[in-house]
Write a structure and sequence with these properties.
Chain lengths: 671, 375
């Protein structure tokens, strides 16, 4: 519109895009220098995207399930295990793993590239979370080999550890009491005193234990085992064996700072309904920089947790602690200061952001009644021959060439804009995929490659919608400069709406589907965003610049925007009382006749001569300065609508007239 | 040709030439119903017959592991399996340095033995070094269920988004029905050709979901633009305005479809003729059929359907009746109601006439300057 006050700055937009692309590739190049992808560092940056299992091969891990409770390994448990493993891998990123059952029992996991030990652990560890009451705490070293100094140190350390846990418990219980007392108490007992107590308890243990915290459960054998355990040795802190569920269990703390005798399992990890990781929120609402895992129990778990905490509160230290045991290791043993009725607990410990997230993941995606033995771990080659990728890329190249040729035929020089936009889109997509495969381990499968090739069509469609809109505006008699602006306003809406649909599809499939579908959804969402970036930051500003060149503005025959080829015949009001004609291909008289008929509301379906005599109304400049942005009514009709609106309730919604320029008294119906 | 096409596009836009798609919508509805029923029939026949040709990823199959092969070349295994089961396309990968893993669809007991000895011969290892086992589906029930759930949520969300964007649920309903039509037709044609259904096929179908809705949204956007304020005038009916929109976006639809189909066609060609069965062939067939059907349905099914739905709205129905009435009156006035020309002329827009474009203000700067000297 001539009266527009917004100043378009196409060059600035283009420069912005240029900077974005430079930053993208700059980061990538920096990545290849600082964190290069090598044999040792498969997750480093590279100028070629990571490829998925089907194209690059990867590592095949054969897992043999072992039940922990002597139950039969059924097909059902295997299927459940596959589901859990898949969820864990999917939660790690977007690399597409392939998980199958082999034979009766084995599970085969194919992971693209060379997975880190963490990933392999994630797949094969069982993540059994159990809650047991603490019977005895001891210094980590074997009791026989202890010296006074060591034991003092160790006790202090374990006291520290306990302090943390105590805090955690308190907060999760919303308790307001000072924890100092509890902490002091739990720090007090040395291993000697506790073990003595325990031994005594063990001696007169004839009757059945009253409750899981009963010290009578500690048998001499158990005590012996406890004394011999040296938790400072790393091999004793591997974990894995979660112990029997219905009898006491000797265990190390995960950090090796204490050892425990624990009562029977009171709450199973399966009673956890939700687990999440986050920074701990301090008592006054301030966020500390300690990573914790927050868990919520389901109904059964909540009841059990309430009972346990109620019982433990009254017990002396260290029996007032309950241990959170993950795969046989105590990760946290907080003191129960108050009964916790709402089933919410916080696990603190020596977590990093990653380890907290991993634990939350493992807890969330179910604890398996299985552990897995890694039977073999071997490199496998790509499942699809390398010629598939080559031929696929060849097909893409041919397709692209055909698209370029078609664009040039259809849109002449304007087709070059399409080509340039597609090149930019390809460049951005390539860069983003490279960065993503570096940052979050995205890997491109053959299906993904096909998706990218398909994206050529969807991206090109945005340009086509835009160009056709510009042509429509030209046909309505605008100058190119106006047409580019006006066409953009219309096309922008369409492009945004249709891309929004694509994006919804991508997001929904990403979050709800698994495996290969997820990878595809990611590719779809990515290309949709790239499409938007290119259209907004490249194609439109470029069109604005081109509209200023003589070649396009004068409508050169080869420009693809030649008004004459577009059939512009009507007079065009060029402002300041001047009128230009679009060099009509038909005679001027015919044109004016057509216009008159148009205005009178009668047809030009047949040639003008065929039209019957019609009541010719007075026309008010309808064909001069024709515009697409007003309501599609004659002035008489608008007045009628206005009168109706004034007389009765407002007429139905007409909402595409928002930006129509207002003339005279016709403002009222332009809502 | 290009000039002819451009002229054709101009004529479509101005309404000089127009295809009465909305007017003849019954015809297209019948065609769509027949196509859907035929597709369902084909799918039903397939399922009732030997079942759908599901890939190893869905059904599981046999796996052979060759160990101790001196020359772990993949092609050797492909050839060996081809001798026993010619229609089978094995997935071969090298495991470690001298192991070969071969996966095929479920083979009979005899075939398993034959393949084992063939593989042993091919890699010159003892038969005992070739083990066979059953492998489960990598795309199991749970994956399918998740995908189906995703699909359902997608449909609900997209309906919601479209309802909000177009401020009319009938448009969303028409788009979703057209989407259903596209999916059924694509699966039907895929089943007719009988290629193996693999995860690539499913991914292709999911792409079609997005593409079909996308295409429909573009056309509907023009329909909405053209029909805004339609009840405030008496020259054309809602159906006629919608028909004009379809005609005006025809060039766009053709260009987009050609541009989108060209790359897919080249993958399909290379996949089918140079590579044989595999991911590329499966995904490109699903895409090619789906995109072509999607482009067709957004013009010939979605819009007519939308008009049919919208005409059930009281306001639109009354308006249509009023316009028709006035048109008849005008015809009677002119006096030669018999001829087709007269009907067309009176209708003005019967076959998609160019809309009236009232003048707009060009801004104060466009006004003639008052000469300063005159003051």
């Amino acid at each position: 519109m001539a009266t527009t006050t917004r100043r378009a700055r196409p060059v600035r937009t283009l420069v912005t895009l240029g900077i974005l692309i430079i930053v993208l590739f700059g980061a990538l190049f920096a990545g290849t220098k600082l964190d290069p992808k090598t044999e040792d560092n498969p997750e480093g940056a590279s100028l070629t995207p990571g490829l998925a299992l089907d194209l690059e091969g990867g590592t095949q891990i054969v897992l043999k399930p072992v039940t922990t409770d002597d139950s039969e390994v059924t097909t059902e448990t295997i299927n459940q295990a596959i589901q859990v493993i898949r969820q864990r891998i999917d939660a790690q990123g977007v690399s597409e793993a392939e998980i199958t059952r082999q034979g009766q029992q084995n599970i085969v996991v194919g992971i693209p590239g060379q997975p880190s030990q963490e990933t392999i652990d994630l797949v094969s560890t069982s993540a059994q979370m159990r809650f047991r009451p603490v019977l005895t705490v001891g210094a980590p070293t074997a009791t026989a080999a202890e010296s006074d100094d060591e034991s003092a140190d160790a006790t202090e350390e374990s006291a520290d550890a306990t302090e943390e846990s105590a805090d955690a418990t308190e907060e999760s219980a919303d308790a307001t009491e000072e924890s100092a007392d509890a902490t002091d108490e739990s720090g007090e007992p040395t291993d000697e005193t506790t073990t003595d107590d325990a031994t005594e308890g063990g001696d007169n243990a004839a009757a059945a234990p009253e409750n899981p915290s009963d010290l009578a459960q500690i048998t001499p054998e158990l005590q012996e085992q406890f004394d011999a355990l040296d938790c400072t040795l790393p091999e004793n802190r591997v974990g894995g064996d979660s112990g029997p569920t219905d009898s006491p269990f000797v265990s190390c703390s995960e950090d090796g700072l204490a050892k425990y005798i624990l009562g029977p399992v009171e709450i199973e990890g399966t009673d956890i309904s939700n687990a999440s990781s986050g920074l701990r929120v301090g008592p006054n609402g301030a966020v500390t920089n300690e990573w914790v895992v927050n868990i919520e129990f389901d109904g059964q778990g909540t009841a059990a947790f309430r009972d346990v905490t109620t019982r433990l509160v009254s017990l002396p230290s260290p029996q007032n602690q309950f241990a959170m045991v993950l795969d046989g290791l105590v990760i946290s043993a907080p003191v129960a200061n108050d009964p916790i009725p709402d089933g919410k607990a916080e696990i603190s410990g020596s977590f990093t952001r990653e380890s907290a997230a991993t634990l939350a993941n493992q807890l969330n995606f179910g604890s398996l009644p299985l552990t897995f033995d890694v039977q073999s771990q071997e490199q496998i080659s790509a499942t699809l021959g390398s010629d598939q990728l080559q031929k696929g890329l060849l097909a893409g190249a041919i397709g692209l060439l055909l698209v370029v040729m078609y664009s040039l035929v259809q849109y002449r020089v304007l087709g070059l804009v399409t080509v340039a936009s597609l090149v930019i889109a390809g460049l951005v997509t390539f860069g983003v995929i490279d960065v993503l495969s570096w940052a979050i381990g995205y890997r491109l499968s053959l299906a993904g490659v096909a998706g990218l090739i398909v994206a050529i069509g969807i991206t090109a469609d945005s340009f086509i919608v835009y160009f056709e809109r510009i042509r429509d505006e030209l046909r309505d008699g605008r100058t190119l400069d106006q047409a580019v602006d006006k066409g953009w306003e219309r096309a922008r809406r369409t492009i945004l709406a249709s891309d929004a649909v694509n994006f919804v599809a991508a997001i929904v499939l990403y979050y709800l589907a698994v495996g290969g579908v997820r990878g595809f959804a990611f590719t779809l969402g990515l290309t949709t965003l790239v499409d938007l970036v290119v259209v907004f930051l490249f194609t439109h500003p470029l069109m604005k610049l081109l509209a200023r060149t003589k070649f396009f503005a004068n409508g050169h025959a080869a420009s693809g925007l030649d008004p004459r080829r577009l059939g512009v015949e009507s007079l065009r009001y060029a402002g300041r009382g001047r009128v230009t004609t679009g060099a009509p291909s038909r005679s001027a008289t015919a044109t004016s006749e057509v216009d008159a008929l148009d205005d009178s509301g009668l047809g030009t379906q047949a040639s003008p001569g065929d039209a019957p005599t019609a009541p010719v109304r007075e026309t008010v400049g309808a064909s001069v300065g024709a515009s697409g942005d007003g309501p599609r009514m004659t002035i008489a009709e608008r007045r009628a609508a206005q009168q109706r609106a004034a007389a009765a309730e407002p007429p139905p919604d007409t909402d595409d007239i928002a930006d129509a320029p207002a003339a005279d008294g016709e403002n009222e119906e332009k809502r | 040709m290009a000039i002819g096409f451009a002229q054709w596009g101009n004529d479509l836009y101005t309404g000089r030439r127009s295809y009465n798609i909305v007017g003849n919508r019954k015809r297209y509805f019948v065609a769509a119903i027949v196509a859907v029923v035929l597709s369902l029939g084909i799918i039903g026949l397939r399922v009732a017959g030997d079942g759908l040709n599901l890939g190893i990823e869905f059904r599981g199959g046999s796996e052979f592991t060759v160990s101790g092969a001196s020359d772990a070349d993949e092609q050797v295994a492909v050839d060996a399996v081809a001798q026993i089961a010619p229609e089978e396309v094995p997935r071969v990968s090298v495991v470690g340095t001298e192991g070969v893993r071969v996966q095929t669809a479920q083979l009979s007991q005899d075939q398993v033995q034959e393949v084992r000895s063939a593989l042993a011969d091919a890699y010159s290892v003892p038969v005992d070094d070739v083990t066979s086992s059953y492998i489960g589906p990598s795309w199991g029930q749970d994956v399918s269920q998740k995908a189906a759930l995703g699909l359902l949520v997608f449909l609900v969300l997209v309906s919601l988004v479209m309802t909000i964007y177009f401020r009319n649920w009938r448009m969303a309903a028409a788009a979703v029905i057209a989407l259903f039509h596209d999916l059924v037709l694509t699966i039907g044609i895929y089943a007719l050709i009988g290629w193996e259904i693999t995860p690539a096929t499913v991914i292709g179908l999911l792409t079609i979901l997005a593409y079909s809705i996308y295409d429909t949204v573009v056309v509907f956007d023009k329909v909405r633009e053209n029909t805004a304020g339609v009840v405030n005038q008496t020259r054309s009916t809602y159906a006629e305005r919608a028909n004009l929109a379809v005609n005006q976006t025809m060039v766009r639809s053709i260009n987009t479809s050609v541009v989108a189909l060209l790359p897919v066609a080249s993958i399909l060609f290379i996949g089918a003729f140079l590579l044989g069965a595999g991911t590329l062939r499966d995904i490109s067939l699903a895409l090619f059929v789906g995109m072509a059907v999607g482009a067709y349905s957004s013009i010939f099914l979605a819009t007519p359907l939308e008009v049919t739905f919208r005409e059930r709205e009281a306001a639109i129905r009354e308006h249509t009746a009023k316009v028709t009435e006035q048109r008849a009156a005008r015809l009677a006035e002119v006096g030669d109601a018999g001829t087709e020309d007269a009907v067309l002329a009176a209708a003005g827009v019967a076959e998609g006439h160019r809309q009236l474009q009232p003048g707009s203000h060009q801004g104060a700067a466009a006004q003639p300057r008052r000469k300063r000297s005159s003051r």
